[in-house]
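ok so for the tutorial part 2 we go from a plain amino acid sequence to predicted structure tokens. step 1 is just haveing the sequence, like this:
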Amino acid sequence: MTEAEVVIHVRFAPDGSVTEIGERPQDISAQAWFNLLSDDAAFNYQSLSGGRGVFKLPRTLVDSLKTKTVH
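step 2 — the prediction. this is what the tokens look like for a chain of 71 residues:
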């Protein structure tokens, strides 16, 4: 492995909305962060049981996506 990988855990409510998500910048909601990750990195998402899922992404991509949230 040449680059550090980040595992971002996601937890969903029964209605499908995001209640918790890792690596979230403070200035956006959990749902907005999930939407951004889904738009730019959906190919690295894995659904899990129990209303959970994970994104497995290179650290550089996560840092790049975080800069998109800065206003």
